[in-house]
Amino acid sequence: MSSTGLALGEGQRSWRLGVMGGTFDPIHHGHLVAASEVAARFGLDEVVFVPTGQPWQKATKKVSPAEDRYLMTVIATASNPRFSVSRVDIDRPGDTYTVDTLRDLRAERGTDTELYFITGADALSQILTWRGADELFELAHFVGVSRPGVDLQQKDISHLPADKVTLLEIPAMAISSTDCRRRTSEDLPIWYLVPDGIVQYISKRGLYEVPENKESHGGE
Ligand SMILES: Nc1ncnc2c1ncn2[C@@H]1O[C@H](COP(=O)(O)OP(=O)(O)OP(=O)(O)O)[C@@H](O)[C@H]1O
Ligand SMILES: O=C(O)c1ccc[n+]([C@@H]2O[C@H](COP(=O)([O-])O)[C@@H](O)[C@H]2O)c1
Protein backbone atom coordinates (compact mmCIF):
# COMPACT_ATOMS: atom_id res chain seq x y z
CA MET A 1 0.00 0.00 0.00
CA SER A 2 1.11 3.54 -0.63
CA SER A 3 -0.16 4.86 2.69
CA THR A 4 3.28 4.88 4.32
CA GLY A 5 3.10 8.36 5.76
CA LEU A 6 6.08 9.28 3.54
CA ALA A 7 5.76 11.67 0.58
CA LEU A 8 5.25 9.97 -2.77
CA GLY A 9 8.42 9.62 -4.84
CA GLU A 10 8.77 10.57 -8.49
CA GLY A 11 6.76 8.28 -10.77
CA GLN A 12 4.62 7.02 -7.90
CA ARG A 13 0.92 7.70 -7.93
CA SER A 14 -1.46 7.82 -5.03
CA TRP A 15 -3.41 4.74 -3.90
CA ARG A 16 -6.92 4.85 -5.35
CA LEU A 17 -9.33 3.61 -2.73
CA GLY A 18 -13.00 2.96 -3.52
CA VAL A 19 -15.31 3.26 -0.52
CA MET A 20 -18.56 1.31 -0.74
CA GLY A 21 -20.77 2.28 2.19
CA GLY A 22 -24.02 0.47 2.84
CA THR A 23 -26.29 -1.13 5.37
CA PHE A 24 -25.60 -4.49 3.67
CA ASP A 25 -28.59 -6.19 5.31
CA PRO A 26 -27.70 -8.43 3.51
CA ILE A 27 -24.90 -7.68 1.02
CA HIS A 28 -25.90 -8.92 -2.47
CA HIS A 29 -24.49 -9.27 -5.98
CA GLY A 30 -25.74 -5.78 -6.94
CA HIS A 31 -23.29 -4.29 -4.41
CA LEU A 32 -20.43 -6.52 -5.57
CA VAL A 33 -20.97 -5.77 -9.27
CA ALA A 34 -21.15 -2.03 -8.54
CA ALA A 35 -17.83 -2.12 -6.66
CA SER A 36 -16.14 -4.25 -9.30
CA GLU A 37 -17.35 -2.06 -12.17
CA VAL A 38 -16.30 1.22 -10.54
CA ALA A 39 -12.91 -0.33 -9.68
CA ALA A 40 -12.35 -1.26 -13.33
CA ARG A 41 -13.52 2.07 -14.75
CA PHE A 42 -11.56 4.26 -12.29
CA GLY A 43 -8.46 2.06 -12.00
CA LEU A 44 -8.99 1.60 -8.26
CA ASP A 45 -6.33 -0.31 -6.31
CA GLU A 46 -8.76 -1.43 -3.62
CA VAL A 47 -12.41 -1.14 -2.64
CA VAL A 48 -13.19 -1.05 1.06
CA PHE A 49 -16.73 -2.02 2.02
CA VAL A 50 -17.96 -0.10 5.06
CA PRO A 51 -21.08 -1.49 6.76
CA THR A 52 -23.00 1.30 8.51
CA GLY A 53 -23.28 1.41 12.28
CA GLN A 54 -26.69 3.00 12.79
CA PRO A 55 -28.05 4.26 9.46
CA TRP A 56 -29.99 7.35 10.59
CA GLN A 57 -32.16 7.35 7.45
CA LYS A 58 -33.37 3.83 8.32
CA ALA A 59 -34.04 4.65 12.00
CA THR A 60 -37.69 3.58 11.80
CA LYS A 61 -36.84 0.23 10.18
CA LYS A 62 -35.54 -2.94 11.74
CA VAL A 63 -31.87 -3.38 10.93
CA SER A 64 -29.93 -6.57 11.72
CA PRO A 65 -27.13 -6.41 14.33
CA ALA A 66 -23.99 -4.70 13.02
CA GLU A 67 -21.83 -7.78 13.69
CA ASP A 68 -24.05 -9.92 11.42
CA ARG A 69 -23.90 -7.32 8.65
CA TYR A 70 -20.13 -6.98 9.11
CA LEU A 71 -19.54 -10.75 8.99
CA MET A 72 -21.71 -11.14 5.89
CA THR A 73 -19.68 -8.39 4.20
CA VAL A 74 -16.42 -10.15 5.10
CA ILE A 75 -17.73 -13.48 3.75
CA ALA A 76 -19.00 -11.92 0.49
CA THR A 77 -15.76 -10.06 -0.28
CA ALA A 78 -13.23 -12.67 0.92
CA SER A 79 -12.49 -14.15 -2.50
CA ASN A 80 -11.52 -10.84 -4.13
CA PRO A 81 -7.95 -9.72 -3.26
CA ARG A 82 -8.83 -6.09 -4.05
CA PHE A 83 -11.84 -6.01 -1.72
CA SER A 84 -11.55 -5.32 1.99
CA VAL A 85 -13.92 -4.46 4.85
CA SER A 86 -13.67 -1.69 7.43
CA ARG A 87 -15.20 -1.50 10.92
CA VAL A 88 -14.90 2.31 11.17
CA ASP A 89 -18.66 2.90 11.04
CA ILE A 90 -19.75 0.03 13.24
CA ASP A 91 -17.12 0.82 15.89
CA ARG A 92 -18.06 4.54 16.05
CA PRO A 93 -20.92 5.16 18.50
CA GLY A 94 -24.03 7.02 17.34
CA ASP A 95 -25.58 7.56 13.94
CA THR A 96 -23.44 6.92 10.87
CA TYR A 97 -22.53 9.86 8.66
CA THR A 98 -20.38 9.52 5.56
CA VAL A 99 -18.37 12.61 6.47
CA ASP A 100 -17.10 10.68 9.55
CA THR A 101 -16.44 7.56 7.45
CA LEU A 102 -14.29 9.52 5.01
CA ARG A 103 -12.48 11.46 7.75
CA ASP A 104 -11.62 8.19 9.54
CA LEU A 105 -10.40 6.49 6.37
CA ARG A 106 -8.35 9.56 5.46
CA ALA A 107 -6.74 9.53 8.92
CA GLU A 108 -6.10 5.76 8.69
CA ARG A 109 -4.72 5.68 5.13
CA GLY A 110 -2.90 9.03 4.92
CA THR A 111 -3.07 11.91 2.48
CA ASP A 112 -1.52 10.01 -0.45
CA THR A 113 -4.75 8.02 -0.81
CA GLU A 114 -7.47 9.26 -3.16
CA LEU A 115 -10.98 8.35 -2.00
CA TYR A 116 -13.83 7.42 -4.38
CA PHE A 117 -17.16 7.02 -2.61
CA ILE A 118 -19.45 4.62 -4.47
CA THR A 119 -23.18 5.00 -4.04
CA GLY A 120 -26.46 4.48 -5.91
CA ALA A 121 -27.29 7.39 -8.23
CA ASP A 122 -30.60 7.75 -6.35
CA ALA A 123 -28.73 8.39 -3.09
CA LEU A 124 -26.24 10.69 -4.79
CA SER A 125 -28.88 13.15 -5.94
CA GLN A 126 -29.86 13.56 -2.24
CA ILE A 127 -26.32 14.11 -1.03
CA LEU A 128 -26.79 17.77 -0.13
CA THR A 129 -29.11 16.56 2.67
CA TRP A 130 -26.24 14.52 4.15
CA ARG A 131 -24.33 15.89 7.12
CA GLY A 132 -21.28 18.03 6.22
CA ALA A 133 -22.13 18.04 2.50
CA ASP A 134 -19.50 20.70 1.63
CA GLU A 135 -16.70 18.79 3.31
CA LEU A 136 -17.72 15.55 1.56
CA PHE A 137 -16.53 16.89 -1.79
CA GLU A 138 -13.18 17.92 -0.29
CA LEU A 139 -12.64 14.41 1.03
CA ALA A 140 -13.66 12.24 -1.94
CA HIS A 141 -14.83 11.90 -5.50
CA PHE A 142 -18.42 10.55 -5.67
CA VAL A 143 -19.49 7.90 -8.15
CA GLY A 144 -23.24 7.39 -8.53
CA VAL A 145 -24.05 4.03 -10.12
CA SER A 146 -27.18 3.06 -12.01
CA ARG A 147 -29.58 0.52 -10.57
CA PRO A 148 -32.80 -0.86 -12.04
CA GLY A 149 -35.60 1.66 -11.63
CA VAL A 150 -33.18 4.59 -11.61
CA ASP A 151 -32.84 6.38 -14.95
CA LEU A 152 -29.43 8.08 -15.00
CA GLN A 153 -30.57 10.49 -17.75
CA GLN A 154 -33.28 11.77 -15.38
CA LYS A 155 -30.87 12.39 -12.52
CA ASP A 156 -30.15 16.07 -12.09
CA ILE A 157 -26.74 16.53 -10.49
CA SER A 158 -26.21 20.07 -11.80
CA HIS A 159 -26.32 21.30 -8.16
CA LEU A 160 -23.22 19.22 -7.34
CA PRO A 161 -19.58 20.12 -8.15
CA ALA A 162 -19.01 18.70 -11.64
CA ASP A 163 -15.36 17.75 -11.09
CA LYS A 164 -16.23 15.76 -7.95
CA VAL A 165 -19.16 13.68 -9.17
CA THR A 166 -19.54 11.04 -11.89
CA LEU A 167 -22.61 9.03 -12.86
CA LEU A 168 -21.81 5.55 -14.15
CA GLU A 169 -23.96 3.02 -15.99
CA ILE A 170 -23.23 -0.47 -14.66
CA PRO A 171 -24.63 -3.91 -15.59
CA ALA A 172 -28.22 -3.98 -14.31
CA MET A 173 -28.76 -6.24 -11.29
CA ALA A 174 -32.39 -6.13 -10.19
CA ILE A 175 -31.52 -7.08 -6.62
CA SER A 176 -32.20 -5.24 -3.37
CA SER A 177 -31.60 -6.15 0.25
CA THR A 178 -35.29 -5.50 0.91
CA ASP A 179 -36.24 -8.14 -1.63
CA CYS A 180 -33.71 -10.65 -0.21
CA ARG A 181 -35.17 -10.16 3.28
CA ARG A 182 -38.74 -10.51 1.99
CA ARG A 183 -37.90 -13.67 0.02
CA THR A 184 -36.25 -15.24 3.09
CA SER A 185 -39.26 -14.45 5.28
CA GLU A 186 -41.53 -16.06 2.66
CA ASP A 187 -39.29 -19.12 2.40
CA LEU A 188 -38.34 -18.30 -1.21
CA PRO A 189 -34.77 -18.92 -2.41
CA ILE A 190 -32.12 -16.20 -2.50
CA TRP A 191 -29.53 -18.45 -4.16
CA TYR A 192 -27.60 -16.51 -6.84
CA LEU A 193 -28.96 -13.15 -5.65
CA VAL A 194 -26.33 -13.22 -2.89
CA PRO A 195 -23.05 -15.19 -2.64
CA ASP A 196 -23.50 -18.82 -1.51
CA GLY A 197 -21.84 -18.15 1.86
CA ILE A 198 -24.43 -15.46 2.58
CA VAL A 199 -27.32 -17.88 1.95
CA GLN A 200 -25.71 -20.22 4.48
CA TYR A 201 -24.99 -17.46 7.00
CA ILE A 202 -28.59 -16.13 6.89
CA SER A 203 -29.94 -19.64 7.39
CA LYS A 204 -27.50 -20.46 10.22
CA ARG A 205 -28.32 -17.23 12.10
CA GLY A 206 -32.05 -17.34 11.31
CA LEU A 207 -32.02 -13.79 9.92
CA TYR A 208 -35.15 -12.33 8.25
CA GLU A 209 -37.36 -15.29 9.15
CA VAL A 210 -40.18 -13.07 10.42
CA PRO A 211 -41.77 -10.66 7.88
CA GLU A 212 -40.54 -7.08 8.54
CA ASN A 213 -44.02 -5.65 9.13
CA LYS A 214 -44.60 -8.19 11.95
CA GLU A 215 -41.51 -7.08 13.89
CA SER A 216 -40.96 -4.19 16.24
CA HIS A 217 -37.87 -2.05 15.64
CA GLY A 218 -34.81 -3.93 16.90
CA GLY A 219 -31.31 -3.47 15.52
CA GLU A 220 -28.47 -3.26 18.02
N1 LIG B 1 -28.71 -3.62 -7.36
C1 LIG B 1 -27.93 -2.56 -7.13
N2 LIG B 1 -27.25 -1.99 -8.15
C2 LIG B 1 -26.49 -0.88 -7.92
N3 LIG B 1 -26.33 -0.28 -6.72
C3 LIG B 1 -26.98 -0.79 -5.68
C4 LIG B 1 -27.81 -1.96 -5.82
N4 LIG B 1 -28.34 -2.25 -4.61
C5 LIG B 1 -27.87 -1.31 -3.76
N5 LIG B 1 -27.05 -0.44 -4.39
C6 LIG B 1 -26.37 0.71 -3.78
O1 LIG B 1 -25.47 0.22 -2.79
C7 LIG B 1 -25.42 1.11 -1.66
C8 LIG B 1 -25.71 0.36 -0.36
O2 LIG B 1 -27.02 -0.17 -0.49
P1 LIG B 1 -27.86 -0.80 0.68
O3 LIG B 1 -27.00 -1.57 1.63
O4 LIG B 1 -28.79 0.20 1.25
O5 LIG B 1 -28.67 -1.90 -0.21
P2 LIG B 1 -30.14 -1.89 -0.74
O6 LIG B 1 -30.31 -3.11 -1.57
O7 LIG B 1 -30.47 -0.57 -1.38
O8 LIG B 1 -30.92 -2.03 0.66
P3 LIG B 1 -32.47 -1.85 1.06
O9 LIG B 1 -33.28 -2.58 0.05
O10 LIG B 1 -32.51 -2.43 2.43
O11 LIG B 1 -32.72 -0.35 1.07
C9 LIG B 1 -26.47 2.19 -1.92
O12 LIG B 1 -25.79 3.34 -2.38
C10 LIG B 1 -27.34 1.59 -3.00
O13 LIG B 1 -27.92 2.60 -3.85
O1 LIG C 1 -23.92 11.05 5.81
C1 LIG C 1 -25.14 11.01 5.67
O2 LIG C 1 -25.88 11.90 6.14
C2 LIG C 1 -25.75 9.83 4.91
C3 LIG C 1 -27.12 9.77 4.60
C4 LIG C 1 -27.60 8.64 3.91
C5 LIG C 1 -26.74 7.63 3.52
N1 LIG C 1 -25.41 7.76 3.82
C6 LIG C 1 -24.47 6.68 3.45
O3 LIG C 1 -24.75 6.15 2.16
C7 LIG C 1 -24.43 4.75 2.16
C8 LIG C 1 -25.63 3.95 1.67
O4 LIG C 1 -26.66 4.10 2.62
P1 LIG C 1 -27.93 3.13 2.66
O5 LIG C 1 -28.80 3.71 3.75
O6 LIG C 1 -28.54 3.23 1.28
O7 LIG C 1 -27.43 1.77 2.97
C9 LIG C 1 -24.00 4.41 3.58
O8 LIG C 1 -22.59 4.40 3.64
C10 LIG C 1 -24.58 5.51 4.40
O9 LIG C 1 -23.86 5.78 5.61
C11 LIG C 1 -24.93 8.81 4.48
Automatic annotation (TrEMBL):
Pathway: Cofactor biosynthesis; NAD(+) biosynthesis; deamido-NAD(+) from nicotinate D-ribonucleotide: step 1/1. Its EC number is 2.7.7.18. Residues 19-183 form the Cytidyltransferase-like domain. InterPro entries: Cyt_trans-like (IPR004821), NadD/NMNAT (IPR005248), Rossmann-like_a/b/a_fold (IPR014729). CDD domains: NMNAT. It catalyses: nicotinate beta-D-ribonucleotide + ATP + H(+) = deamido-NAD(+) + diphosphate. It is an enzyme of class 2 (transferase). One of its GO terms (molecular function) is ATP binding. The keyword Ligase does not apply. Pfam families: CTP_transf_like (PF01467). GO terms for biological process: NAD+ biosynthetic process. Catalyzes the reversible adenylation of nicotinate mononucleotide (NaMN) to nicotinic acid adenine dinucleotide (NaAD). Belongs to the NadD family. NCBIfam families: cyt_tran_rel, nicotinate (nicotinamide) nucleotide adenylyltransferase, PRK00071.1-3. HAMAP family: NaMN_adenylyltr. This is Probable nicotinate-nucleotide adenylyltransferase. It comes from Propioniciclava coleopterorum.
